[in-house]
Target: Arachidonate 5-lipoxygenase-activating protein
Amino acid sequence: AFFANKLEHESKHCNGKGLQRQGSSYFDRVYTANQNCGHAYPTFLAVLWCAGLLCSQASAAFAGLMYLFVRQKYFVGYLGEKTQSTPGYLFGKRIILFLFLMSVAGILNYYLVFFFGSDFEIHIKTITSAISPLLLIP
Model:
């Protein structure tokens, strides 16, 4: 909602009419940042839900909140110079990778239970709970 509101405000400020692609370079940066965040959102939701359902809900929720914070940092950094958005982008990639690995671990555990009767859910939850605070390290 913040991204869309910022885009609408900048569009009205530059053109006086509805959303139009022409405008200042600041409008172009707002528009591009909004598009980038919109394109990354479906991937984030998919890995977040898989990690939460198949692995650990607490670790997935923590990583999800961190990702939303990082996307905000990316968006605000993109409005300045483009190099200011790089840390937010890289941090976001690391969180998506963590959620993806949680999803893979949950899927592997499901198949281990299904085929061999071995359940490693407690071990996986312990490991992800221990690793998730490491996401705070830049």
